[in-house]
Structure formats: structure tokens, C-alpha cells
Amino acid sequence: MIFNRKTILFLVSFTFCGLNVQSQNSIADSLENELLLHPKKDTIRVNLLSLLINQIYDLDVNKAENLIEEVESISKKTDYKKGKANAIYYKGHVETVKSNYEQAIKCFSESLQLYKSINYKKGVSYSLNGIGIAYYFQGDYTKAIEFYNKSAKIDKEQNDLKGVAGSFNNIGNIYADQGKYEKAIDYYEKAKKLKEEIGDLQGAGRSYGNIGSIYGEQSNFPKALENFNKALTIYDQTGSDAHVLLLNFAAVYQIQNKYDEALIYVNRALEINKKQNNKREIASCLNVIGDIYKEQALHKKALGLYIEALTLNKEIKSKRGIAITLNNIATMQLVLEQESEALYSYNKALVINKEIESQLGTCRSYLGLSRVYYSKKQNVKALDFALESQKISGKLELLVLQKEAYEMLSKIYSSIGQYDKALISHQQFKILNDSIFNKENIEKITQLEYEYKFQQELESANNREIKLNKSVKSTSLDLKKSQRNSFIAIIIILLVSIVSASIIFYLKLRNVNAKTQNILIEQKLLRSQMTPHFIFNSLSVLQGMILNKEDKKAVSYLSKFSKLLRIILENSRDKMVSLNQELIAVENYLALHNIEENEAYNYTLVVDGLIDISTFNIPPMLIQPFIENAIEHAFGNQKENRKIDVHLKLVENNLVCTITDNGVGIETFIENKNSRKKSLATTITSERLKILSKDFKKEGSMKIEDRATFKEQGTIVTLVIPYKVDVVE
Questions:
Q1: Does an H or E element contain 715, and which?
Q2: How many CA atoms lie within 13 A of 337 on its CB side?
Q3: Most buried of the four, 46, 381, 489, 720, by CB within 10 Å?
Q4: Can you tell me whether residue 718 is helix, strand or coil?
Q5: Are strands 654-661 and 602-607 parallel, antiparallel or unpaired?
């Protein structure tokens, strides 16, 4: 019985990845709505398309390919290098899903070079991992590990613990395939520890499942079930799809000869994988059902399922899957007395298993060849292969295969007249058989152990009670002598309690005051963005358009106005919002004023390529008040060539936003004594940045300068904005 390790490939993305299909559909629907609201062929649309591709490429390849073409087209026209790299990167994943691994490697290698050219290290890490995945499916484990390690190194440098954990899981899968179980468990444990450290419960659940699979292959079923149940609990808590564990639970029931229960689990897994058209997992399910039929002596049905699984594995070029299925087919061929066919299948499986360094598969092939040669009465060859199988199974602690190898050795030694060795082998067979299947004895021992521990605790408690009674009696005799000391001690305790309570009360009061101050600042901020003057003007402009029968213009204005109000109200409820969402609000605000004033302002909104607006989160409503100041106060009587430029960049790991205008300048404005509105926005933002800097332990500051200092016209506002970055897998 081979336990299923779900291949936890680090299919990294540019956003969070929901594990269940329902979650993916929800995110995809939301992104498609955003795309409808943003038809403009610009970098924002490219980023939204990239996010959508990430959600669907393994569910709807054709749709993903169409979206990739659009990303490629827009990126070429706008010379958006990151967008070009994204398109090629996702082409690589599509080719992987289609099992075109050579083409996938070419795509990932090309995206790797593009990401390097713009110094986007996350993209570099993603591409390296993609190459590792393609090599893994080709069965080239050495190269796969090489690229996983390169990816992990970059993620370590970037402190991307989730990425490092993903690479560790991938490496663990390879060692598990090769039968290097200690190394595999070591990497799974490392991955689990990192996932738990960053609060990624779903990732930790995968690691528990993988560890359980290894214990299952070693017939350590209590340990296997312990880890499977931990994984299942996490999947239930997070609402994730737990079908990756179904084959493992089926295997445990199969070992206990509970075939009906096993078939329920494996058929559920098969149904889910057919819906997702996951050919690798469909083949795994067919192999497991074949195993169950084999043990029920339905040999021809089992052989038919194995052949179907082999066809799928050949179609996707899965060397590991081909080797496993060939071993299964050979077993059935031998049972059906097709010795020549069985010999051919076992030898073919052995070649592949050695090529991919799968010790488990090699062990099975050796055991199968021993059975074939024993059936053909070629005992010398049968003995050689049985000894090789016993050696590997002993080293890997594969109890079931060890038991079967000793059973085979007992038969062979008996046939060649070495009865002493036959007896020893049979005794080993019995010991292993009992250790695997004597479940009742194990349960009794466990029960006795708990009863023993309980009795120990009970006796310990009785001893503590006797000592306590003696102590009470002794204390009572000396009570009169110690009354004065006790009174003093009570006074000291009361004083300490009063002081402690005062400190706690003060800290709570300070915390409440800080929260109240936060709320007041946020209310002021909302009022500063949604001033009655702005709303009244906007509605007046809309009324004028309707009266002038400018229907199209009125509809466009109303759409932008309502969207802006919705975004402002939504953002005001959150402490952090997506940088992408904040920029949409700013762009809508600028566009509204341009409609009102007949394209009176030239504005630009530029984001440096190193900033991924989908993963950067910032406090809401920091930028717009300064744009409003520029529109209302910067230009005075200046009617032409009015420019406002907003630029976001990363400077020494700080997110810096500059708002530049070519108006009269801050010094001239102050001289005119008309700075009340600007002072309000400045005061509110200054207060917020002080609080946010403490909350997020990131620098936050504000500086307003007259561009005359730089021999230019206008004002420049420089905001250093505290931010957080979503870590993605």
C-alpha cells in the first residue's frame, strides 16, 4: 500500500492562493468585477489580469491562455516589463498543467531573465521554483532540488518565510519519493515550523499530512493517523479542501481489511479530481482502487484499473507514476500466471525506479522479481532479489515489505534445503506480521500504560495530602508566635495589590484614550475627504449636466462620483487597505475634477516597478487630502498648464509618495493668509502618522516644501507611508 503524499508544489503567485475551489471562484469573481470597472488598457489592468490568471490557470486552462494574451498585448504597448514577465511566467504554469514540461522550463527561464532585468527578486524566486516543479514532474530530482534551493535562498534573503517553507515542502516530497524518509521528515518539520511561525495554518496542515504519509508507508499507523487527524482539524478550522487526505484514510482502512470504508474515501477523492481534471491524482485513485480489488481477489478488474492508470501517467509523462503502476500491473500479471509479461513489467519498473532514485519503488520491484523467478523455479535469482528487497525495506523500516520479503526468503530457503535459514526467516515474518496487525494487544498495552500513570498520579496526590496535613498541624502550633508577622505580610500584600491595580487601571485608561484618539482622527479624516463643499459642488455640476441634456457626461460623472464615495466609505472602516484600492480612489478623485473643469488639470499617477500594488497595504486616505489642497489652493488665477504629479517609489525600504504641483508655491500661499484648509489636512495627517508609526513599527513622516528652493515653481509634499506587504505562495 502506497500512501498518498499530496505534491505540495510551491506554485507561487502574486496574491494569496485559496486552497478550495469555492474560495478560488469567489476571488476570481471579485477580480472579474474589478476588471469590468477598469477597462483602461494600463498597468493596473495588467496587474488585475495577472491576479485573475493565478486563480484559474489550473482550473480553466483555455481561459487562462486568453487572459495571458491580453496581459502580453497591453504590456508590450505600455512597455511594462513586469507585465511581460508575468505573462511568460504564467505561460510556464499553463504548460506544466498540460504536462508540456520542456516548454514550461523555457517559459520559466525566460521570465526569470526578465524579472532579473528589473531586479524583482520575488519574480526571480517564483521562476526558479517553476523550473524546479517542471523538473520534478520529469523525474529529474537532482535538478529539481537545485532550483528549489536557489529559490529558498532568495526567499531567505527577502525574509519571505512562506516561500522558504514552500521550497522545503517540495524538497521533502523528493526525498520521500526516493525513500529517504529521515531527510523528508526533517524538511517537512522545517516547513511546518515556519508555517506555524507565520500563522499559515493551511500550510502547516499540508506538512502534517505529508509526515503522516511517511509513517503510513512505514506501517506506523498510530503516528500516521495522529498526523492525518491534525491536518484534518486544521483544514476544518480554515475551511480548506481536505480531499488531499482522503487516499490516506482509505489506506488505513484498507490495511485493516475494511474495504467498503476504504472505497468510500477513495471514490470521493476520485470524484473531486475528475472535476478538476487532475490526471496525476486520478491515476493515484485508480491505483488505490486496483489495490483494493486485488485484495478482494478481483484480479481482472484490478488489472484493468492499473492499465488505465498507466495510460494517464504516460500521457502526463510522470516517471514516478509509471513506475508505481508497472509494479502493480506486474503483480496482477503474476497472479494471472502471465510470468513473461510480469517479468517484463517488473524489469521496466526497476529501471525507472533506479533512474529517479526511488528506493521504495526499487524495493517493490526487487520483491516482485523474486516472486517471478521463484514461480519459474529459478531459486538463485529469486534469492538474490529477495535479499535486496529485505535489505532496502529493513533500512527504510517498511514493515509490510519487510514481512513480505522474509516470507519470500522462507519459501526460497525451504526450496533449496536451507531449513535453518528458512525457519529464521519464517520467525521474522511472524514477528513482523504480529507487530503490524496485533492491534488489540497494542490497545491493551496503551490502556494499561495510562492506568499505571493514573495510579502513579493518585499515589503522588495522597503523599502530598499527608505532607500537607503535617504542615498544617505544625503551623497551628506556631500560629500565636507568627500572628504579628502574618499581619504585616497581609498589609504588604494589600499595598502591592493596590499599586498593581492602579498601574493596570492606568494602562487600560491610556489604551482607551489612544483608541478614542484614533477614532476621532479617522472621523476628522473622513470629513476632510468628504467635505460638504465638495459634495455640494459635485451635485451642482451633475445637475447642470442633466439640465444641459449632457446625458452621457452626466452618467459618467455620476458613476465616478458614486464609486469614489463608496471607496472612501469602505476604506474609512479599515486600518490598512490595498495600495491598488487607494490609487483607484485617487484616480477617481482626479478624474472627477477634470470632468467638472473640462480637463483643467494634467495629472500623472506613477508607481515604480519594484512596488507590487496588489500586495502592498497602506493606511487609507493619506494621499487624497493633499491632492485636494493642490486643486483648491495651488493654482489661484492660473488657468492653463496646471499639473499635478503623484509618484510612489521605494527608497531604502521606505514607501515614499510625492505630490507635486506647478502652482504658486506654499510660501506664497501662506503669505496670503488663506491656509486654514491646508492646515487641517496637515494636522490630521501628522497626528495619524505619529500613531501609525508606533502601531506598525515603520517610519511615517510628512514634509511640505516650496519648489522655489529647487528653482522650480509650485509645491512638493513628501509622505513616508508605513506599509505592510502580503507574503504570497
A1: strand 715-721
A2: 0
A3: 46
A4: strand
A5: unpaired
Q: What is the mean pLDDT of the chain?
A: 79
Tell me which residue of 169, 236, 238, 207 sits closest to 17, measured CA to CA: 238
538-571 per-residue burial string, b: 16 or more CB within 10 A, e: under 16: beebbeebeeeeeeeebeebeebbebbbebbeeb
Q: What is the pLDDT of residue 488?
A: 74
577-578 sheet: strands from edge to edge: 577-578, 616-618, 724-725
- Per the CB < 8 A criterion, the answer to whether 345 and 360 are in contact is no
State the Cα–Cα distance between residues 300 and 303, nearest whole angstrom: 5
Which grid coordinates belong to 600? 483643467
Question: ∠ at Cα 40 (39, 41), nearest 5°?
Answer: 110
Render pLDDT for 60-93 as a digit per residue (tens, 0 to 9). 778 889 999 999 999 999 999 999 999 999 999 9
Q: Of 614, 613, 615, 711, give the one whose Cα is nearest residue 657.
A: 613
Find out whether 704 and 717 touch, Cβ atoms under 8 Å: yes
CA distances from 593 to 27, 596, 674 (A): 32, 5, 21
Does CATH place domain 9-158 in 1.25.40.10?
yes
Beta carbons of 364 and 329 less than 8 angstroms apart: no
What average pLDDT does this structure show over 576-591? 86
Distance CA(409)–CA(423), nearest Å, equals 10
DSSP 171-215: HHHHHHHTT-HHHHHHHHHHHHHHHHHTT-HHHHHHHHHHHHHHH
pLDDT-based confidence at 455, cuts 50/70/90? Answer: very low
Backbone angles phi, psi at 79, to 5 degrees: 55, 45
Joined grid coordinates for residue 503: 498601574
- Break the chain into its structural domains and give their ranges: 9-158, 440-477, 515-725
Alpha-helical regions (H) of 242-297: 246-255, 259-275, 279-295
Nearest to 544 by CA among 483, 471, 596, 616: 596
Query: Scanning the structure block, which residue is given the C-alpha cell 503535617?
Result: 470
- The answer to whether 9-158 and 515-725 have equal CATH topology is no
Q: CATH code for 515-725?
A: 3.30.565.10
H or E segment to which residue 75 belongs: helix 61-78
Give the other-Cβ count within 10 Å of 463's Cβ. Answer: 10
Q: Are 247 and 288 in contact (CB under 8 A)?
A: yes
Element (H, E) at 625: helix 624-629
Which residues are CB-neighbours of 243 under 8 A, at least 6 positions away? 268, 269, 272, 273
The beta-carbon contacts of 199-204 under 8 Å, at least 24 apart in sequence, are 200/162, 200/165, 201/234, 201/237, 201/238, 202/19, 202/234, 202/235, 202/238, 202/240, 203/162, 203/165, 203/166, 203/169, 203/729, 204/234
Residue 725 has pLDDT above 60, yes or no: yes
Residues 152, 153, 154, CA angle at the centre, nearest 5°? 90
Q: Give residue 481's pLDDT band: very low, low, confident or very high (50, 70, 90).
A: low
Each residue's pLDDT tens digit, 545-555 = 788 878 777 77
Long-range contacts at 702-708 (CB < 8 A, ≥ 24 apart): 704/666, 705/666, 706/665, 706/666, 706/667, 706/668, 707/660, 707/662, 707/665, 708/665, 708/667
Q: Do 619 and 688 meet the contact criterion of CB atoms below 8 Å apart?
A: yes
- Residues 6 or more apart whose CB falls under 8 angstroms from that of 257 comprise 295
Dihedral (CA of 263, 184, 16, 104) sign: negative
Confidence of residue 529 (pLDDT cuts 50, 70, 90): very low
CB 589 within 8 A of CB 624: yes
Q: At what angle do helices 579-596 and 551-572 cross, to 10 degrees?
A: 150
> From CA 290, how far away is CA 266, in angstroms rounded?
11
CA distance 681 to 234: 46
